[in-house]
Known about the structure:
With about 250 residues, this protein is α/β, with parallel strands linked by helices. About 45% of the residues lie in helices and about 20% in strands.
Amino acid sequence: MRFTDKFMQSNIPFLCTPIIGKTKEELIDEIASVSLKNPDIIEWRVDYFQDIHDFEKVVEVARTLKEVSNDIPLLLTLRSVAEGGNPTSLSTMKVVELLVHICKTSFIDLIDFEINNPDEEIRQIKKAAIEHDKFLILSYHDYSKTPANEELIEIFKRAQTLGADVAKIAVMPNDHGDVLRLLDVTNQAKEVLQIPVATMSLNSLGAISRMFGWVFGSRLIYTVGANSSAPGQIPIEEIQRLIKTISTYQK
Length: 251
C-alpha cells in the first residue's frame, strides 16, 4: 500500500518530524538521528538551507536525504517569513519554480504550500503534484491570533476547493478558549470536508492541541526529533507514548 493510501485510511495520526540544517552535512546528521525515532514523515524545512538558490543542490540533497531516511516519506516545506519561516533570497516566482522542479524528482513525497498564495500559483503547484504523484498540503499560519471559527472553516473549504490533499492550520492562542475553539473546528471539519486536516495551537498554551488534537480529527502531528521548527512542538517519543496509551483505552 502506498504511503498516501495509508495516510488517508488510518485512524491513528501520522507523526512528522522536521529537519532544519543549513548545510548538507548538518541535514545528514539530523536525518540520521531523526529516522531512528520512526516518524511517519520527515519534513525538510528547506527555507533554512543556505544553498536554497541553487536548485540542483536542493535536488542533490533531497536525493541524499532519501537514501539515508530508511524510506521514510519526505515532506519539503519552504515556509515564508510572513508565516514563521526563515528568510531566503528567493522571489515568489522562484519559490514556485523550485517547488515545481522538486515535484519532478522521485526524492520528495509531499509538498507544503501556503494557502495565502495566489490561486494561480497554487494551481501550478497542484498541477505538478498531480503529474508527479506528490501529496499536497495547503497550509495556513497565524502567529498573532486564532481567527474566528467561521474564518477557519472557510480556510479549510478553500484548501479543499484548490485541491489540497491535506489542509493544515496553525494558529496562536491568546487563552485556553482559543485552544478549545480550534479543537471544535477540527471536529467540525470532519462533517464539512472530504479531505483530512491537520491543526495545531502554538506555544506552550496550545501544546494540548498537539497531544490530543488527533482525537478530534487532526491527522498530522508535528513533533521534535532533533530540532524544533515551531513553538510548542513536543518530542516525538512523548507523543508516541501518548497515542499508544489513548489508543489502548479507545478500543
